[in-house]
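Hey all, sorry for the wall of text incoming. These are the two entities for the joint prediction.
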Amino acid sequence: MTPLTIGAVAYDPKVVTIWEGFCDWLASRGLPTTYVLYATYEQQVDAHLAGACDVAWNSPLAWLQTERKAARRGRVARAFVMRDTDRDLTSVVLARAEGPVQSPADLSGRVVATGAHDSPQATLIPLQVLSTAGASDVRPLVFDVMPGKHGDHVGGERDAVRALLDGRADAACVIDGNALAFAREGLIPADALRVVARSAPYDHCVFTSLDGLRDADVARFGELLLSMDWEDPVVRPLLELEGLRKWLPGRTTGFAQLAAAIDGLDTPGAAAVRAFVDA
Amino acid sequence: MIDLGPAPFDRGPHVLVEHALRTSADGRVRVVGSHPDLGWQLATWCRVVGHRLEGDVVVRGGDRFARSLVSGHPDAVAANADPRWGLAVRGARVEDGAAELSFALADRDTAWDEDAPRLLAQAQAGQWDPATAVPWDEPFELPEPLEEAVVQVMTYLVENETAALLVPANLVPRLHPHYREVVGFLAVQMADEARHVEVFTRRIGLRGRSPGTSSRGGQASLATLVTERDPDVASFLLSVMGETSFLELLRFLQQHGPDPVTRAICRLAATDEARHVAFAVGRLRRRGDPALLDRLAAAVRAREAALRHTSGLDPHVFDALIVLASPTFDPEGVGVGFERVVELVGRMDRARRAMLVRLGFSPERATELSALHTRNFM
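and here's what came out:
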């Protein structure tokens, strides 16, 4: 059997370890797989639609890009597996605890530090939240670490928080887990920041398939992922590297905020996403 | 229930929740508090660490140690130490799937000695401080031949002590750390030898002299110890054959050392060396391996064959010992010194034979093997 080809984006060297390990494990369960790494999610989305990979490990934005581009070609994309840690995430907008910003509206006309221009969690969703919560003429200060990787790299969010702490920005946008991580690593001092806005829960990465593209093998691939046991010592290090305890069935109910952001925001990042989908 | 009050959850209180989860019978803990960020921070933390949140109740998630293995018993050594235990202390819960560490000596028969805990405690209690235990500042002035002889003997002692440091250093990484008292004893032995190197080196330069000579024969003899890979043989050749002989030498220097510093450092070193000999002899005696004695005897013969074409003891060292043991530096005096060194060599032989008999060799075999011992003493 021709190996099932997994597409993934190389946002970190550990990605090689992860997919080498997963492919070995899947082979031991009778499913030959291989993987192709892409520099950007846009390359991966186009490659997937062109059939260069059979399934794609997509960011939430890449999922929406695939879904929309596929629809325009009369095809159907499916989000079939996700991590337990991909469900119900939130983004928070932080401001200095002693500063004048106490609500989203206070950020009108002020500088808001964000992650990469295409980061759902640290740019698109929080800017959309601020926009709907009454902040007008927000001036984004974008930390474009690894554009094309949809904010997978934590560097942009860390830079955004630094900008807030040293006064270059009036607020910073981060995902909830990074807010806790930055406190733990000492970046955020005690009582220094406050939360002025928080998004509704949303979902993150999903494994994506396209109808008619090796449906039976994709189904088997999904079943095997769902069977991975965190207590299995062979699998656990891979799951830990990939940041999950358990694979869960995919769902598409958690992408509405992001869809609204890319449709509604008047930012270069959102405009670029719309142009890519239309291309 | 845990009430965090106004405390921010992202700055420490998660440890209270983890503790409560560990001690809770049903793995459920209700968490309340008044901090405005408690809700989302608790939810985020649960997601990241793998717990589940039901309202304000945290439900314990999977335990990475659920299938852990226990690295033996805290109060007993295992017959076989599992490579999967790695570096964990005896009795720890070791996560399954951890990288295995392979140690050549990983069973009680080859790695353990029941006397190790007692001797380790004794070794730790017997440590001395070179700065205060030695009367470095006590005034003395030696005639030139005596100072020269002391420096030559110290030069010889340093290279021998260095070999004695490297032999356990070779052994320690091959011992499974489950047998920690044995590892510990050898580590203290290395510290002992390093201290001996330190004080003997300091005595060399105490009166401004440069070190003496280091002979090919002496170095060749020591090289056979340092490169020996069989741990039983290395320990036997170093401690039973070598250090037993060396103990006699140190006692000789304690008696005939011409200055208070030389006498003190040889006395202090001898107490350490006696402990090393006791450890090695006891360990080999209790092995109860009938083939062991044959293996050790073969090693003595092989070493003798390897060193047969070398000169053995540096003649400068032999002569320096004569000078030190001579009551006067004249023909009559050095004659006395000569006889004392000959007696020393005889005492070393008797001491080795006694040790060999304690190990289980017959008196005849002990005599034969002792005679084959390196002329370099160590």
